[in-house]
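ZP: hey, is the heme C complex queued? I don't see it on the tracker
AM: it wasn't, my bad. submitting now with these inputs:
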Amino acid sequence: MKRGEKYVWGLIGVLLVVAIGRSLLQKQDVRRGEIPFYSTAPDAVARPAFDLYKKYHCKECHSLWTIKDMLQNVPAPMLDGIGSLRSEAWLYEYLSAPVPQEILPTRLKAEYKMPSFANLPENERRLMAQYLASLKVKDWYLEETKKAEYEKLTGLEYHPK
Ligand code: HEC
């Protein structure tokens, strides 16, 4: 290698290290690893609701508390923070809809779209809606959560208004 080339490669190396370092620092700066998602539900709601969540295989398509079936690859919105985007009444109506896509259109193949849970007993739909509505996101991560949801639902890039 010529001296000039060495110099150029050296410079590229330094720039790379600086760029990677800066992006890591910026990410950390966001909130030093603080988790933005939390639930306001008491145990008496969260426990039985999460049992339903497992029973009805929601985790085959959605992720919640970082839990998702690794074998599945359905691009459904994550449910962390959903209670900051949707009201309990909306969630109950959505879970009760014979055709959820009349409320929220899908962009996916039939086997991936949100199934109807209209046939579940009413108390289960109410409990699930109550729990989902309790899944909040802290203000500093709300925009990110909206962006992720929008991009999952539409497949388009999000441009805040
Ligand atoms: C077969 C995959 C699949 C399963 C199983 C599934 N969902 Fe979904 N869900 C989706 C998809 C995909 C969407 C986005 C709308 C669409 O494409 O139909 C969605 C949308 C939603 C939304 C609206 C999200 C938003 O951004 O407003 C909620 C809430 C939800 N699902 C809850 C659940 C719950 C609770 C369960 C279990 C009882 C469940 N889902 C089971 C695929 C699934």
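AM: back. The mean pLDDT is 90.
ZP: great, adding it to the tracker
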